[in-house]
Amino acid sequence: MNKESVKFIKTLSSLFVLIALLGCSSDDSITDDDSDDGSTTGTIDTDSYIVVVDTGFDSVYLINHDGDELFEWDLEGDELGDDAQLLDDGSLIVSLQSSNSNITFGGYGGKFRKINADQTTDWEVTYSSNTYRAHHDVDYLSNGNIIFLVWEEVSAIDAEEMGFAANNDMYPESIIELNPSTNEVVWEWHATDHFIQDHDSTKSNYGVVVNNPNKIDVNYNSSQSDGDIMHANGITIDETNDLLYVTVNYYSEVWVIDHSTTTAEAASDSGGNYDLGGDLVYRFGNPLTYDNVGDVTLNRVHYPNLFDANSMLVFSNNIYNGQSAVIEYELSPPYQLIAGQDNEPTVTWEFTDSSLYSLTTSSASRMSNGNTLIGEGTAGTIWEVSESGEVLWKNTNYNSIWRTYPYEIDSPAITALGL
């Protein structure tokens, strides 16, 4: 089905939803309230617009709370590789699908484009081959570089030398920082440099997993038959502390990596602000990954959304057995991981609902008035909930959502779009 046909179907769907809503309410907004008496005490954040990254229709929209599409970015017919990030100058960094790789796990990308506010292309770069491929998320640095996740192929023979228990190729994560003006890789990190395992005592990385909390157990998910053992899906950089946060879906946790290292240090276990090289400086959400104690608070996970310096929202896709949740953590850098002790951060807020569920994708963001905006991935539903957990607003007019991002109406990014 071509894009024009998809757009036509979407338009019809929008019309049917609108007719249904007009038939039961005089309110133009798409609302849903779970309270018994139909009333709410919270207030919808109408001072914000919402960027919707809709992978179902390979489109990125800016909408208001009436569901009006105020702006759509021209992707020139390319398919989304998932993420899109709106910058203060009104330009959009977008991940797109390249066609030159055999690595096709869900969420693959391989190409990045910066689209100016006037819809012209500023730059486009590709990071993809038959042995590696960029995927899912991209973050834009203040120096103009981009940083993103990459699957890299490790042959079954090489994987065996790393103590991998399965007899197949594997595709662990790496992180690449690229200067898009020169196409130069300026920094990189590879999970393969930081493996530990207790499977094969003849290998150099053999050790006791629980005694090495900063290392990654290569066999935690070795039963994943396609070799996509980690499936990271989100990356956020804290430039103030020079730290990277990564949501690792199949490990059900968030990894924290020291970005202050050189590439050589990132391949070792020394150097950088934490003197741990590229070993994990912190991790949380699922202490079972390193045989540790503490509460498991994540089961599948998307989007490490750091805000207000030390607060983080993440979307836990399946924490309640077919029910998702949004969880807020209070983080306390500088970090420390202590073997055999509870290293988990404090959970300060949580929202869940019996009808909230998406096994893949999804996001949560804190809005300007304190509400939380939720993009419920495979359901194609946008939620706005209050601090007390009231469901203030829903928009069900989308097919499959990667993420939703709130932007204040008077923010530089919105102003640059001429709205």
Q: Please, could you describe this protein's structure?
A:
The protein is mainly β and 419 residues long. The protein has a domain at 1-84 and 361-419. It is 9% helix and 36% strand. The chain is built from four helices and 26 strands. It has helices spanning 3-24, 156-161, 263-266, 412-416, and strands at residues 48-54, 59-63, 69-72, 80-86, 92-97, 110-115, 121-126, 132-140, 146-152, 173-179, 184-190, 195-196, 216-217, 232-238, 243-248, 253-258, 282-284, 301-307, 311-316, 325-330, 346-352, 363-366, 372-376, 381-385, 391-395, 401-408. The strands form seven sheets. A four-stranded antiparallel sheet has the order 3-2-1-26, with no helix packed on it. Strands 4-5-6-7 form a four-stranded antiparallel sheet, with no helix packed on it. The radius of gyration is 21 Å and the shape is globular. It starts with a helix and ends with a helix. The model is unreliable at 1-37 (pLDDT under 50).
